[in-house]
């Protein structure tokens, strides 16, 4: 079989006219003029080339196969009489002397047109992902991902980090999501877990004397899909540094990421070092979010004192947060749509009013504010034409609801959002503990392996909810790229930290035996972070859905419908790993 190509389908130029060449690729389309004249588009990984069929013999070969078959074309390059200046190969065409069929497409009809695959139903795209990936637009995102990963790897190595791979089969660890469990055939009744993150291993590497570690790490979490989160598995730029402070970690990330975002991103500018540092409590108070989009210049104001007793029921006894916006030209219908969108996202209602050009409060809840008009204007610094969005509830509820409203208003109002840049920031000083929404009991707020600010003294002498941790989040354009921390490397402080959430010394030793024991042999202060690769590529590519930048993503139900996974297995396989299936009872 002769198939060695001399050129790819994006390579030939006018200077190649007269050459004998061999091209290979997919038969994309044909514009048939007559029984012995047709214009074929041949596509490979690199691009397309026009093939001009001028004989009945060559036309018979093309007529014998369906579109998307793979073929080899040998022929002469010549100048096109009708040039296409939009294509790199648009000045030439190839006249074939032979066409060989390499791989037949046996289907007369495709599930979708290749170049319009993004218009197809998502499940159809995922089932026929191998066809979807032939679409140059879809393929380009995977190529971009490869380039970004290569650049990340090169930059980390240039910063003296060593790439070390950590185990995939490990033990269950409390990372905040459900584990994927793997039964151990030789150890009946026991299970491995796929790592939610290489957390313990990278900390043990620090205790082992490795100074700077990184890897492009696969992580596995049994959690639901979101637009910015893929179910099942994802990848992160995992890194850890020994003898490092929080600022040391920040310095590396601030040096590695912005050039990559600026080089490959849909926006060609990105924040430069140092990124803005915002304490968690300040971020919630000003932006209503611990992942604020700093491209938006709107901030939350506290309107509790001036509005809580205005007679409007939802405000009574609650915190009231306000967002003041000028240049909002939205119609009543558009305002109602934003309010409905906030309610879908938060399950909370929002409210509004405007100060008209005559200085009168109108619209929304205006009637409740007439008697205190001037106090409201003064408290919020209003000027004619201003729109005011409002949220109310317990402090955290009011903040989060107003934060969602802020993002929508910032995008809708003229001049309040820079849309052509990547704005990074650090959210710092997270609380060490919180009261769990489901349990109602004290829980770790972020990472249980973080060092509390103040060390042992804070654990023993401060109220648990007042203790801050050396924890930080990296945020870009309102998307959380990563959480990180300076780690708790002191076994005594570790035991005291876990004691506050009801886990004793024996529990700590039982749950984290390797890491705990390693730390008892002298561990360095260390810290790290792990920005999500999938989310980074999504932002850089300007995509709204993370599945667009993953080669073989699962659907929203964590199913790989191309490979039909998850799937049933036969009884012998179950017996080998000592598993009996008990199906849930039907209601």
Topology:
Layout: E1 20-34, E2 37-43, E3 48-53, H1 56-63, E4 70-79, E5 92-103, H2 122-127, H3 129-132, H4 136-158, E6 162-163, E7 181-183, E8 191-193, H5 199-207, E9 212-221, E10 232-242, H6 246-264, E11 276-279, H7 280-287, E12 300-302, H8 304-307, E13 319-325, H9 332-346, E14 350-355, E15 361-362, H10 373-380, E16 387-393, H11 395-412, E17 424-428, E18 433-435, E19 442-444, H12 455-461, E20 471-476, E21 479-486, H13 491-499, H14 505-511, H15 513-519, E22 526-529, H16 533-541, H17 571-576
Parallel strand pairs: 6-9, 11-17
Antiparallel strand pairs: 1-2, 1-4, 2-3, 4-5, 7-8, 9-10, 10-22, 12-13, 13-16, 14-15, 14-16, 17-20, 18-19, 20-21, 21-22
Helix pairs in contact: 4-6, 4-16, 5-15, 7-11, 9-11, 12-13, 14-15
């Amino acid at each position: 079989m002769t198939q060695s190509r001399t050129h790819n389908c994006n390579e030939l130029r006018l200077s190649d006219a007269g050459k004998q060449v061999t091209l290979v690729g997919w038969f994309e389309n044909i514009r048939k003029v007559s029984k012995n004249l047709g214009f074929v588009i041949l596509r490979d990984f690199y691009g397309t080339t026009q093939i001009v069929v001028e004989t009945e013999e060559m036309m018979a070969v093309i007529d014998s196969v369906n579109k998307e078959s793979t073929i080899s074309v040998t022929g002469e390059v010549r100048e096109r009489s009708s040039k296409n200046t939009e294509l790199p190969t648009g000045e030439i065409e190839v006249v074939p002397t032979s066409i060989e069929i390499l791989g037949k497409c046996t289907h007369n009809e495709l599930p979708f047109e290749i170049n319009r695959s993004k218009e197809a139903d998502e499940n159809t795209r995922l089932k026929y992902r191998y066809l979807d990936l032939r679409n140059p637009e879809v393929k380009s995102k995977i190529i971009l991902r490869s380039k970004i990963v290569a650049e990340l790897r090169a930059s980390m190595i240039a910063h003296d980090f060593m790439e070390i791979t950590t185990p995939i089969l490990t033990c269950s660890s409390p990372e905040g999501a459900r584990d994927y469990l793997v039964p151990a055939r030789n150890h009946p009744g026991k299970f491995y877990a796929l790592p939610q993150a290489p957390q313990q291993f990278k900390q043990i590497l620090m205790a082992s004397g490795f100074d700077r570690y990184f890897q492009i790490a696969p992580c596995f979490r049994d959690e639901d899909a979101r637009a910015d989160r893929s179910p099942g598995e994802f990848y992160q730029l995992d890194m850890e540094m020994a003898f490092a402070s929080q600022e040391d970690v920040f310095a590396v990330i601030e040096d590695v990421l912005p050039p990559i975002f600026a080089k490959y991103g849909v926006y060609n500018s990105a924040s430069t070092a140092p990124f803005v540092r915002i304490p968690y409590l300040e971020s919630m108070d000003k932006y209503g979010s611990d992942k604020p989009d700093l491209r938006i210049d709107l901030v939350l104001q506290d309107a509790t004192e001036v509005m809580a007793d205005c007679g409007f029921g939802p405000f009574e006894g609650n915190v009231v947060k306000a967002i003041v916006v000028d240049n909002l030209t939205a119609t009543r219908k558009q305002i109602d749509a934003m309010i409905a969108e906030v309610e879908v996202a938060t399950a909370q209602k929002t409210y509004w009013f405007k100060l008209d050009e005559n200085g009168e409060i109108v619209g929304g809840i205006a009637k409740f504010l007439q008697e205190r008009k001037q106090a409201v204007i003064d408290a919020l610094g209003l000027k004619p034409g201003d729109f005011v969005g409002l949220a109310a509830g317990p402090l955290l509820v009011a903040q989060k609801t107003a934060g969602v409203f802020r993002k929508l208003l910032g995008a809708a109002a003229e001049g309040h959002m820079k849309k052509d840049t990547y704005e990074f920031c650090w959210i710092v000083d997270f609380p060490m503990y919180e009261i769990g929404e489901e349990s109602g009991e004290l829980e770790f707020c972020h990472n249980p392996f973080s060092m509390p600010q103040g060390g042992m003294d804070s654990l023993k002498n401060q109220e648990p909810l007042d203790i801050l941790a050396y924890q930080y989040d990296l945020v870009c354009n309102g998307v959380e790229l990563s959480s990180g921390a300076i780690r708790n490397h002191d076994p005594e402080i570790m035991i005291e930290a876990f004691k506050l959430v009801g886990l004793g010394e024996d529990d700590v030793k039982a749950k984290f035996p390797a890491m705990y024991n390693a730390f008892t042999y002298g561990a360095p202060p260390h810290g790290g972070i792990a920005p999500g690769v999938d989310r980074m590529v999504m932002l850089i590519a300007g995509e709204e859905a993370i599945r667009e930048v993953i080669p073989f993503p699962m659907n929203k139900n964590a199913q790989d419908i191309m490979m039909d996974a998850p799937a049933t297995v036969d009884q012998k396989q179950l017996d080998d790993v000592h598993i009996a299936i008990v199906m849930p009872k039907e209601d």
